[in-house]
Amino acid sequence: MSFKHTCGAAQALYRILVPRTSTFSRPYHLPSYQARLLRSRTPHVATRAFSTTLSRLAKSRPPEERTQKWDDEITAKVIYLIDPETNRRENEPRTRWDVVRGVDRKTHRLVQLSPDEPNNPDFVPVCKVQSKKEAYEQEKQRKQSQKENKAKSAKMSSVKTLELNWAIDLNDLGHRLEKVAEFLAEGRRVEIVLASKKQGRKASKQECEAVLKKIADCVDSVPKAKELKGLEGKLGGFASLVLQGGAPGG
């Protein structure tokens, strides 16, 4: 047997005994639990679209409107100046340039006190040199005073309610009315509600009148306090009256 014939027989036998395999291997897939674990460990980078919208937390305070002109805002060439010692207007006008030139812009400013008169060709405004520090303190004091007045007004408009029994002991009534007097002295409004207890003792007419007399004496003891609304209701039954305190220091 020739060598060529032997090789051909061997190749045929090899093809029979050894199965053919694909030249391309199938892709390998991780088990599901391994895939989930891999995804959980992969860092996630959050992306955010660029936005030109201003932050809602950013606070913007509108500039306060001024009714007076300062420094270079003053267009008049000639002005009357307030004498800082007498706080009166000088008799002779000055040029604005001469006044501004002598002002230290870091600590002081020139303020026009009188508004412009566009239709008056002979108009000469009145101005003064103002200390920035003093102006700041004055504005601070003005705002503080405004805040206090607002709080005082809210306090005066608030209503305190006191419930009393017509048959109350007069000593106990005296202690209650001491508190009422404090509220009235603060300028507050006090509503007194009078009633009888369902299961309690009924007060006589004289006792009811004595209670009203004590309340009237309490009002008279506080300067500028008054009875805002008289007794409404039934004597000895359900009734009410309103007292108003005077403004403290007013």
User: Remind me, CATH topology of the domain at 156-244?
Assistant: Translation Initiation Factor IF3
In CATH, the architecture of the domain at 156-244 is: 2-Layer Sandwich
Shape: flat
Order of helices and strands: HHEEHEEHEHEHEE
Give the strand content.
15-25%
State the helicity in percent bands.
25-40%
Within CATH, the superfamily of the domain at 156-244 carries the name Translation initiation factor 3 (IF-3), C-terminal domain
Total number of β-strand segments? 8
pLDDT average, as an integer? 80
From the alpha-carbon coordinates, what is the Rg to the nearest angstrom? 46 Å
CATH class of the domain at 156-244: Alpha Beta
Termini Cα gap: 140 Å
Oligomer: single chain
Total count of helical runs of at least 4 residues: 6
pLDDT under 50 segments (min length 5)?
A: 21-25, 45-55
Structural class: alpha/beta
What composes the largest sheet?
4 strands, mixed
Strand order of the largest sheet: 2-1-4-3
